[in-house]
Automatic annotation (TrEMBL):
Its cofactor is pyridoxal 5'-phosphate. The keyword Lipid biosynthesis does not apply. Signal peptide: none annotated. This is Transcriptional regulator with HTH domain and aminotransferase domain. PANTHER family: AMINOTRANSFERASE, KYNURENINE_ALPHA-AMINOADIPATE AMINOTRANSFERASE, MITOCHONDRIAL. Pfam families: Aminotran_1_2. It comes from Kytococcus sedentarius (strain ATCC 14392 / DSM 20547 / JCM 11482 / CCUG 33030 / NBRC 15357 / NCTC 11040 / CCM 314 / 541). One of its GO terms (molecular function) is pyridoxal phosphate binding.
Length: 382
């Protein structure tokens, strides 16, 4: 099973990389964060509360702010050190060694590593244009392969960029209730979606847990995420965290709580970021479509997010060799095989482009160098 990325080295100058999932520096609300940190450290004569030990579930004011945004009770929210930490805590709380976990395929590589570390068995179900393939999942369930949990990335899926429809998510929840598993929805990109759909049925459900993160909207360096789910699971998550690292940074949590509670600050930043990423995905998709590469690949551009997923029409194309040639030209991408949770080489004719953290000029340079590498590949394989 895949457990991480296999980046291709770039030339010494860093080149024009297209392999990352970093947010754009210009989209991060630096001034608002500076003010919120100052406010967090200015409470009273000395901010002793924020600098002391805290509780595993997180600072009360941040949990309350998150619960307000999630339209839920505070008891259904626990703060984490980002989305991946949330997945780790939920997996530790739900999955015993030997339990079955079903994941979309392709999928986020680090999630596969979390499941493997927990000793889980993994089944895979394809992702299609509307989200997880419910027909394939239903066949697995009818065959008696009922997982403890099903892991999905419903908004701007990593790596394909697909966003699941409300109908698919509603039916997924219905299957979870019927068969008794828990849906683990990784919502790291939800706030960047123009109209994210959360089915009404999942509100208050014992079979649905969401992993939130500010890494793509406020910055990954803050290490702030959250788990939103049933209280029995949030209690387990909090207990697990209590014996691992106790809690996160009180100062950072207080600052983020201040930012969220200041009208317009977070929503304004997210609106600007979502528009920027939508423009960049459209731009790179157009560059690819208008080139020789466009005729060679299948590309269904998403409405935004950070990624584009390209699949060569000819399955014999050597994407790993293309990655090496791209590195020589001064650019990079992530090979599709990194996103195969079985680690058996699926998606060998696919690749992911990360387009979020580069300005137009660098995106154009990166795509031009990728096209040069594609020409090099055709010369090698003639």
């Amino acid at each position: 099973m895949s457990s991480g990325f296999s980046p291709i080295p770039l030339p010494g100058d860093g080149g024009a990389p297209l392999h990352g999932g970093l947010p754009a520096a210009e989209a991060l609300p630096v001034a608002a964060l500076q003010d919120s940190f100052a406010q967090a450290l200015a409470r009273g004569s000395l901010p002793t509360d924020e600098l002391q030990y805290g509780t595993p579930a997180g600072r009360p004011e941040l949990r309350e702010a998150l619960a307000l945004r999630e339209r839920t009770r505070t008891g259904r929210v626990s703060v984490t050190n980002g989305g991946l930490h949330g997945l780790h805590l939920v997996t530790r709380s739900l999955v015993a060694p030997g339990d079955l976990v079903t994941a979309e395929t392709p999928t986020y590589p680090l999630a596969a590593g979390v499941f493997r570390a927990a000793g889980a068995r993994t089944a895979v179900v394809p992702t299609c244009a509307e989200g997880i393939d419910l027909d394939a999942l239903s066949r697995q369930l009818r065959a008696g392969e009922v997982p403890t949990c099903v892991y999905v990335v419903p908004y701007f899926h990593n790596p394909t960029g697909v966003s699941a429809t409300g109908e698919v998510l509603t039916e997924l929840h219905r299957l979870a209730v019927r068969y008794g598993f828990v849906v683990v929805a990784d919502c790291a990109y939800r706030d960047l979606a123009p109209d994210p759909t959360r089915p009404e049925a999942v509100a208050g459900s014992d079979h649905w847990v969401e992993l939130g993160s500010f890494s793509k909207t406020l910055g990954p360096g803050l290490r702030i995420g959250w788990v939103h789910g049933p209280e029995w699971l949030v209690e387990r998550v909090t207990a697990v965290r209590g014996v691992e690292d106790q809690h996160g940074s009180g100062v950072t949590q207080a600052a983020v709580a201040h930012l969220l509670s200041t009208p317009g600050r977070y929503d304004g930043a997210v609106t600007r970021a979502a528009a920027l990423y939508a423009e960049r995905t459209r731009y790179v998709a157009r560059l690819v479509a208008d080139s020789d590469l466009g005729a060679a690949v299948e590309l269904d551009p998403p409405a935004g997010g950070l990624f584009l997923w390209l699949t060569f029409r000819d399955p014999a194309v050597d994407v790993l060799l293309l990655a090496e040639l791209a590195a020589r030209r001064g650019t990079s991408f992530t090979p599709g095989t990194d996103f195969d949770p079985t680690g058996t080489g699926h998606y060998s004719s696919s690749l992911r482009l990360g387009v979020g953290n580069q300005p137009r000029s660098e995106l154009e340079t990166g795509v031009r160098r990728l096209l040069q590498a594609f020409d090099d590949l055709r010369g090698v394989t003639r």
